[in-house]
């Protein structure tokens, strides 16, 4: 595949070494399973080491599980050094780890906002800064950053999450251009609502495009062949930039009301979301403790 006359060296998935952050659950787990099914050697990193190890065990001999705190450069260094020590190099990096708190912007705590930015923006930054040097030295490699349509489309009740995903989209686009002549490609995946723990307690559907994690996983794996800059999931959302640029705001607002885009503020089931919110709160508390 080419960009500005540069040809990306092809990557054969059979035997390729893939690292996936946040690989223990949801999109990360589905992506690990699919890469392994295609013959890759998959290294699953997750904040919950037990979940990472269990996920790898369920996949089989082609997977390994490791502890990884994506907010820590030191944790990335240990993770990547361990992978390279075991497999020699990394062919594909999937920055998947993410958190998605919901609710009023003014009610969200500073700690929760910080952990959202640390996981969703600094996570990919740390991951790329740790893995890219080896890829550049080898003149080959591929990075996939899991962003979101929330990186293009603002949603009430997701202000800081929106900010983090707009950041992830911009980070991916800029890095892609910067490394275009290095033999290393950078692609961003922009899913709509996905049926994972991140969306627990939120009424999905009702005009909101919703996909399964396996569909997003296929989009991730497919980028290894086509190396496109951005892939929306589902694909028909790819025209959103153009729509947003040419359609008057009042018409956009009518569409927002039709699909009830304020549901993250008004319709979340607190019981259905309690477990996920507790995990995010615990991570935020731990990070605040480490800052002191």
From TrEMBL:
Gene3D superfamilies: NAD(P)-binding Rossmann-like Domain (3.40.50.720)
Similarity comment text for this entry: Belongs to the short-chain dehydrogenases/reductases (SDR) family.
InterPro entries assigned to the protein according to its UniProt record, in alphabetical order: NAD(P)-bd_dom_sf, Sc_DH/Rdtase_CS, SDR_fam
Keywords annotated in UniProt: Oxidoreductase
Signal sequence annotation: none
A single GO molecular function term of this UniProt record: oxidoreductase activity, acting on the CH-OH group of donors, NAD or NADP as acceptor
Annotated protein name in UniProt: SDR family oxidoreductase
Alphabetized Pfam families for the sequence: adh_short
Top-level taxon of origin: Bacteria
PROSITE patterns in alphabetical order: ADH_SHORT
Keyword GTP-binding (UniProt): no
Alphabetical list of CDD domains matching this protein: SDR_c
Region span, Disordered: 273-292
